[in-house]
Amino acid sequence: MIFGRLFFAAAIFFSATALAGNEANPDAIELAPLPMPVKFTSEMDRPVAFDAATTVVVDCPDAAAVGWLTNHFAEWYGDQSPKVKAGDAAAANADLPPGDEAYAVRADASGVRIAARSLAGVRWAAYSIRQLTIAKRGTLKTEGRILPTLTIDDHPHLAFRAVHLCWFPELRPQQIERAIRLAALLKFNYAILEPWGMYRSERHPWWGWPDARMTKEEVRRLVAIGRDLGITLIPQIAAYGHAGAARGCTLKHSVLDLHPEYEPLFEPGGWNWCLSNPETQRVLRDLVGELLGDFGNPPYIHLGCDEAQPPSCPECRKRPYGELVCEHITNLAAFAKEHGARAMIWHDMLLDRNDPRWKGYVKSGAKLTATLADTLPRDVIICDWQYSYGNMKETRKDWPTMTYFKGKGFSVAGCPWMNYNAMKPMADFVAKIGGFGIIETTWHHLRGSDWVKMFRYGSSAAWGTPVRGASPMYDIQFANALRMVGHDMKVTDYLDTGHLNYQVPPGWWIDNN
């Protein structure tokens, strides 16, 4: 029957090594990311009521947990929201997996119970429950929901699980909010937001495109949404290369195309900031301070620093360039630290592209900039973006570049993109070497199937479990997640549904009929 096909036909035990495909039930709605590492049993043939007559007991010492859950159940389920009451806070540590983000869920004939050590764990439990509920059957409209009889014991593989989002001028604010909400639902706990000329600075209004939609009010609204959902927003600024806040393939420049009077701040051509100009450091400090304030003083800021070019400025060429770059980054990192934020940078300029040790790995630097691996402050976090260039289907098991930076005393994060087969091995490798965490980059792919895969594979890798394959006809798992986020945003626009703006390209009917 349809009911059975939509969930699990019988009690199925999933282990961390038996979750790679949909062999047992190809049509199952699936939880994302899957629990890690040991226990998830689910039986929909014995459904559990999850409606206004249900009371969810929460064993958690965090006093905010019951209020948070009550408010969000009301938001998600309306007048059919289950009641929430505090249970035994001391029982939260009993039989829970390790860590502050661990949680357990029990749903059976006796009721529904959540155990967690913190509000973070309660959030993750709530998101798992939300994905696994379905509407009661046999009615025209939803009149309460049901859960499968289930047991979940769960905790994340890595403590730092981030998604990197780029706000391009072509993106609407709704797409950014949607990506942030979806990341939280999939248990990312950080989102790095990079404004590609879209931040509207009050200190330097010329820094960005006209009518940039990333206003202070919008940033603060998104930060508040993230904080409530359990995902901390981190600002990024391109403090070295990519100085025009535009992709290199476009030849756009968010400053010089419209404000040529600021040319002295940039290397000739505009790709790099001019590091020998003291005004550059002053302006960037102003922007860093402004961003940190608007983002609610987060614990980190990303300074970019990727894909720079050798200097052609006569002043920059007077000093050893590695020394100049180190001074520039060190000063900005120290300034950010004064504001309570630890600096992150991309790794590629710290590796000499001609060094045979890095053959087959991403590297963009020269001997002069590779000296940064020895001279930068060790509290700078190195974000090592390894994209398996030339073979995105490649599966690797180790990353010597990460080991190199870890050996130099840096915290290092692994950063995949569309190299899906390598994501879980990369996360496992980061955990093995005691790395900082995972940053799933998305760049210009916040729509389409690649976006779906980045979020599905990236969230699962960071959590520590393999992706369960999507149904061949319709990705029920991701469709449900998108709808939940859309409902929370109260979307009414066709463009804010699905993972594509249009089912048929605009103008297609006119051109082909």
Note down, in words, how this protein is organized.
- It is a single chain.
- The protein is an alpha/beta fold.
- It starts with a helix and ends with a helix.
- The longest helix is centred in the middle third of the chain and has 18 residues, at 321-338.
- The radius of gyration is 24 Å and the shape is globular.
- The strands form two sheets. Strands 1, 2, 3, 4, 5, 6, 7 and 8 form an eight-stranded mixed sheet that branches. It has an eight-stranded parallel sheet with strand order 11-10-9-16-15-14-13-12.
- The protein has helices at 2-6, 64-77, 119-132, 173-185, 216-229, 278-294, 321-338, 367-370, 372-375, 400-407, 423-432, 449-463, 476-489, 508-511, and strands at residues 12-13, 39-50, 55-59, 83-86, 103-108, 111-116, 134-135, 145-154, 160-167, 190-195, 232-235, 300-302, 342-346, 381-385, 412-415, 437-441.
- Mean pLDDT is 91; it is low at 1-27.
- The chain folds into two domains: 2-154, Chitobiase, domain 2 (2-Layer Sandwich), CATH 3.30.379.10; 160-496, Alpha-Beta Barrel (TIM Barrel).
